[in-house]
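S.,

As promised, the 2-acetamido-2-deoxy-beta-D-glucopyranose run. Input:
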Amino acid sequence: MRMRNKYKKPTTFPCNAGSRCSTSTVVWSLVGFLLMLHLFSLFSHKDRAGGQMQLHKSHQPLFRELVEVEEENIQIPPPKGKRSPRAAKRRPKRTTTLIDEFLDENSQLRHVFFPNMKTAIDPMKDNGNDSFYYYPGRIWLDTDGAPIQAHGGGMLYDETSRTYYWYGEYKDGPTYHAHKKGAARVDIIGVGCYSSKDLWTWRNEGIVLAAEEIDETHDLYKLNVLERPKVVYNEKTGKYVMWMHIDDCNYTKASIGVAISDYPTGPFNYLYSKQPHTFDSRDMTIFKDDDGVAYLVYSSEDNSELHIGPLTSDYLDVTNVYRRVLVGQHREAPALFKHEGTYYMVTSGCTGWAPNEALVHAAELIMGPWETMGNPCIGGNKVSRLTTFFSQSTNVIPLPGLPGSYIFMADRWNPADLRDSRYIWLPLIVGGPADRPLDYNFGFPLWSRVSIYWHKKWRLPPR
Ligand SMILES: *[C@@H]1O[C@H](CO)[C@@H](O)[C@H](O)[C@H]1NC(C)=O
Ligand SMILES: *[C@@H]1O[C@H](CO)[C@@H](O)[C@H](O)[C@H]1NC(C)=O
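Predicted complex:
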């Protein structure tokens, strides 16, 4: 855009010199034409850089802080003392990696990944210049001063009350293994709900869907599994509908569960569970499109692929329509969002509680085909980029009034003590050219890059 302005200058050169004017006009026109030709070829050459430039231009100065690339070097200390069994099993050799350190409960770097209570974010304290800053990985306190318990979370924005509701797994119980080969777990306590107007100060609204303590046949019986609750509001029925992953402790039930409430703060009434479209269903999310149609997205066929299908108009069930997407790619933890008519999805690999590389996928139609665009992570260090900053995607929140800007919500799971898992919230920006050739579209990247920028501390632009 700037280039075109430059070119305009010579053509509007003032002309007052009578007969000489025509010569000078011709000369200037010629110069202008050649300049335009040159700039045009320059512009088409630098098309890739052009996208980046446009992003920075449209986002300045509001977004400068969000897209700053922050490198972070973490020194691995020499081995000292005992390794925890988990770390020792993973890598019996002497050299350790950052991932080993992350998984080692006795690591000297523990405080880097799981900073202690002293550094907790407490929005009720007078934070001075630190107000509204996110510190990814630090303990985050609610308005009562207790650590927020909303893991594998989802976000509902209620437009009438301009309030955000954050739902997630309330995991404030002991971590244990149900049997030798079982994954680390916490008994179901329920779905926690927190409300906020500023996305920083969170009020505990209580457990809006509670575990069943006695009836062993109930889906919500405490020894079962409830993960990744997501709530959507249905305009037609005026109800809040919660979808979640329901499983037994061995993850063989592989179902979705549905609950309903008249209020965002519950209590939610649990309705039923099922295998959607008769398939196994584990990590899942719900995406509500602009036209009011909501979709269930779930990992299926033993997590080897994702399935996407619309819900019924009351959001209480799936229809019989579904598509298999990202077949054979083994992705989980899907988080969907839409930007300028294109659907984007962040997913993780399947490595249990251990972190792995995030990938972004894009599609023109929500039912696919979906294209894999690559790793969105920018900044941090090589290992943290390959581990989604030691976390796993769970949701992406659009920021009203800031087009192209989102908050990426992820969980930094702590398998040694799951209740102490941390929240990694980072700015996610759509813009600039994609950096991986695609399968369709003759390999040409059709969509903008999705970038998640690492920050030790950051905050939203003041509104
Ligand atoms: C806040 O920032 C201002 C300007 O940078 C500085 O003068 C002031 O000392 C800071 N206050 C605190 C409490 O850090
Ligand atoms: C889970 O697996 C273990 C070991 O295979 C078994 O003993 C237990 O009965 C299983 N539990 C359920 C609820 O299927």
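The first helix runs from residue 2 to 11. The first strand starts at residue 151 and ends at 158.

- D.
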